[in-house]
């Protein structure tokens, strides 16, 4: 009997010890669990606060993009290899080029330079030496942004010995090729409101009228992604009289109007809207859109 009682006492003691161990373990785990929950709550609050701050203070005011049509990659838009077999000329982001009668190519580069690519000795176009026509910097000129420290020539047209350039930073200028002298014709701030993103242009056959795009009233080219993400339609088509220097905004509300190309009889001007995946034919008398074509990708320059 005494032994049985002793075993019972030892059993109760073991049970008590086990209960005490469990209780101590719970007490140790509870602070850890509480710390984890508090950390999650604090992190969530910080995340929500950052998102709210970003939403309320973001310079981007994104708009709903409408009237974009999905175009299948078939027919004239079928995937092909037509450009895969060409010869690549290593240059930094060439945007626009003009070919002269003597087989020279004039090209605008992202680093601000306008260069001339000479033909090779045997006459192959684009295979000769590369000559700098401009340095890419116009000292003291009005600019749309000084973030990059140089210009960005986007549109180029050749008329005789005059090379006309639309620069996203400096505006519209002409280069006399024999002397390489440069003259600014349209500064960004002479348009109301001032241009932010001068892009491309075309010149009438009589060389009296220039049609050009200002792709955005809000963002310069140095903030291109902000313009694309916002998707707003503040682009303008502007008409410039070369004789009187008069400027007229003939079409506004375009969605990143980009390239410019007059048709042969100059009754219409072709202007792509990059962020709406389409190309417009605009009447040069009424300035109404006569035709448009949806594309499967974002159009840029047009020639």
UniProtKB/TrEMBL annotation:
> What Gene3D superfamilies does the database record attribute to this sequence?
TolB, C-terminal domain (2.120.10.30)
Q: Where are the transmembrane segments?
A: 35-55
Tell whether Glycoprotein is among the UniProt keywords: yes
Q: Name one Pfam family in it.
A: Str_synth
Q: State the UniProt keywords alphabetically.
A: Glycoprotein, Membrane, Phosphoprotein, Transmembrane, Transmembrane helix
| Family listed | Belongs to the strictosidine synthase family.
Q: What protein name is recorded for this chain?
A: Strictosidine synthase conserved region domain-containing protein
From what organism does this protein derive? Answer: Ciona intestinalis (Transparent sea squirt)
């Amino acid at each position: 009997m005494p032994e049985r009682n002793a075993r019972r006492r030892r059993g109760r003691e073991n049970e008590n010890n086990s209960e005490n161990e469990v209780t101590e373990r719970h007490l140790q785990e509870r602070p850890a669990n509480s710390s984890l929950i508090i950390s999650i709550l604090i992190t969530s609050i910080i995340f929500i606060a950052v998102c709210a701050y970003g939403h309320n203070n973001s310079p981007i005011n994104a708009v709903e993009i409408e009237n974009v049509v999905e175009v299948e990659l078939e027919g004239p838009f079928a995937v092909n290899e037509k450009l895969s077999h060409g010869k690549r000329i290593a240059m930094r982001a060439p945007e626009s080029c003009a070919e002269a009668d003597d087989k020279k190519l004039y090209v605008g580069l992202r680093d601000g330079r306008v260069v001339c690519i000479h033909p090779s000795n045997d006459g192959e176009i684009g295979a000769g030496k590369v000559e700098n026509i401009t340095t890419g910097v116009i000292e003291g000129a009005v600019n749309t942004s000084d973030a990059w420290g140089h210009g960005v020539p986007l549109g180029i047209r050749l008329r005789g010995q005059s090379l006309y350039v639309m620069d996203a930073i400096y505006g519209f200028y002409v280069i006399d090729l024999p002397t390489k002298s440069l003259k600014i014709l349209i500064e960004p701030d002479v348009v109301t409101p001032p241009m932010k993103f001068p892009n491309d242009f075309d010149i009438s056959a009589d060389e009296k009228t220039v049609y050009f795009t200002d792709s955005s009233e809000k963002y310069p080219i140095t903030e291109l992604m902000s313009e694309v993400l916002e998707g707003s339609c503040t682009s303008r088509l502007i008409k410039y009289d070369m004789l009187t220097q008069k400027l007229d905004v003939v079409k506004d509300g375009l969605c990143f109007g980009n390239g410019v190309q007059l048709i042969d009889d100059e009754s219409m001007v072709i202007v792509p809207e990059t962020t709406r995946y389409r190309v417009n034919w605009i009447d040069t008398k009424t300035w109404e859109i006569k035709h448009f074509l949806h594309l499967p990708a974002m159009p840029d320059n047009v020639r």
